[in-house]
Write the structure tokens for this entry.
Amino acid sequence: MGLEVYWTEFAEKELEKIFDYYYEKVSYNFAKKITNGIYKEALKLEKQPEIGQIEDLLKGRKKRFRYLVFKNYKLIYWINNFESRIEIYDVFDTRQNPAKVKRNE
């Protein structure tokens, strides 16, 4: 049995911001398509939690962060073995300055 995917409040808010941006700038359908794609990408982690690469920019932290990429977005997560789940920590737009990935400290 795979691990449950859990979205942190911060990650959920980032996903909402992505939806709101594309809803305003493009269309509802496009916003839904992008956010659904990000969500479905995260579901891959249920069966293969270590599929993502180690996030080098967050190496100095106690948690071992990994990431998956969907289009221009990094889904940053860590495997919480204590809670038996994968925690989506952030959804980061890779077109931003990479140093901003540390904003959720």
The chain has a mean pLDDT of 91. The chain has one domain: 4-93.
